[in-house]
Amino acid sequence: xxxxxxxxxxxxxxxxxxxxxxxxxxxxxxxxxxxxxxxxxxxxxxxxxxxxxxxxxxxxxxxxxxxxxxxxxxxxxxxxxxxxxxxxxxxxxxxxxxxxxxxxxxxxxxxxxxxxxxxxxxxxxxxxxxxxxxxxxxxxxxxxxxxxxxxxxxxxxxxxxxxxxxxxxxxxxxxxxxxxxxxxxxxxxxxxxxxxxxxxxxxxxxxxxxxxxxxxxxxxxxxxxxxxxxxxxxxxxxxxxxxxxxxxxxxxxxxxxxxxxxxxxxxxxxxxxxxxxxxxxxxxxxxxxxxxxxxxxxxxxxxxxxxxxxxxxxxxxxxxxxxxxxxxxxxxx
Amino acid sequence: xxxxxxxxxxxxxxxxxxxxxxxxxxxxxxxxxxxxxxxxxxxxxxxxxxxxxxxxxxxxxxxxxxxxxxxxxxxxxxxxxxxxxxxxxxxxxxxxxxxxxxxxxxxxxxxxxxxxxxxxxxxxxxxxxxxxxxxxxxxxxxxxxxxxxxxxxxxxxxxxxxxxxxxxxxxxxxxxxxxxxxxxxxxxxxxxxxxxxxxxxxxx
Lengths: 333, 204
What we know:
By secondary structure, chain A is of the alpha/beta class. Chain A has two domains: 10-185, Dihydroxyacetone kinase, domain 1 (Rossmann fold), CATH 3.40.50; 186-321, Dihydroxyacetone kinase, domain 2 (Hypothetical Protein Tm841, Chain: A,domain 3). Chain A has eight helices and 15 strands. Chain A has a six-stranded mixed β-sheet, sandwiched between helices. In chain A, helix 2 (87-97) crosses helix 3 and helix 6 (233-248) crosses helix 7. Chain A is globular, with a radius of gyration of 19 Å. Chain B contains nine helices and two strands; from the N terminus they run E-H-H-H-H-E-H-H-H-H-H. Chain B has a two-stranded antiparallel sheet. The mean pLDDT of chain B is 92. The A-B interface holds A 11, 57, 79-89, 110-112, 115-116, 119, 142-143, 148, 150, 198, 200-201, 203-207, 218, 220-223 and B 23, 26, 30-36, 38-40, 43, 71-81, 118-119, 166-172, 175. Chain B: Its EC number is 2.7.1.-, 2.7.1.121.
């Protein structure tokens, strides 16, 4: 049976969504006429500033384009659902945002994104524009090796730190260093309760029987580390928090930023139930909570489930996380 | 002789086959990946076929247009991989408007080279290369079409037993074992289309 969606044509879903977003947020976003899949910040890009260009597949809204704006990303390249954009939109985004101080590409660590953005970086080099890349790798369930991990909801904190650094007019070397530092200190793990379905197929992308959950599920429905019976929220939170805290290796008195993220279909009520336990566990571990985000920040279409992200703050990251930003779907200060 | 019209027909056949197999490929991908492989291949090949059909010029011009069409339509992983493969195929066919039938199979090793170069993969990693590589080696070794088809089929089937060490399925470890790689399966379909349309079919 096909899943029910409010769409017109699965193949047009991304472009029709973009039309709606541009109509809703003209004060934040614009799009070059020749580049239908590049979205640029209205305010933010300026001469002498490193251009932070993010991007990836659609279906994760408000990631990526919702984080384009003053103080955060300068532009985003938009792919098809769950598919990396081709090189051209990334080039178009970079050219539109270029302030002459270099371009930093940031996106999640997926083979397709790496190939397409690397081709984009080569094309920019041919135009004499320096483009560097920092991959996000915050999903601790996806590999024991940091460099092989996927980038998931922790993107919002990692992009935020790098975007603030760029907004403070730091040079490309510094923005890149901070982006790597932010990524190295950000840890995410999620749980899926139901499959998402793609607009083109309108069928569940994977089979997750009733009563089951998948721990460590990726944000495209990639299978996680294990499947088991659905447990009460506190038990699920404990399993995730145990893994995150072990990875993070923080000392008592350290500060963290927290994101309790919906994968799309899970409501705020459940996210706050999770967060009650997250807060208790952090207090128990002697960690102080500097910032909390609860809501849909990095979704997987209509998947039910949630992820928890911890960013291990230091003085530098705390300042950057607190830096003001004004994006279509994320504002601060 | 194999002409520009034959090449356009081949790209149209790729597109038709991927449209037919879209949901099947998505289901295979759903088991070990993100479930969109069939969509990327359908959209990419549709764009490649359209670009090829609209191009006047040499065999190489048509391959280049198909590469660009595929890449700009989908991105994803298959975009850069097949775009690079088609560029190499165009080089193998050359800036001419026809080649002898015997030369057509050279596009199989050319596509293999492009995919391996762009994806930095080697055979045995549970990817599309596990189909393209043995088929390419068979072509280089002078195998018949039937033998090329057999090695490609065995290559795609062999991915079932492999643990992925590249791409999205990598993170699955042993859980991917038992499922064929969807990229290897779609590669086999494309090789079938090449063999069925360009050379006397294996049954001859």
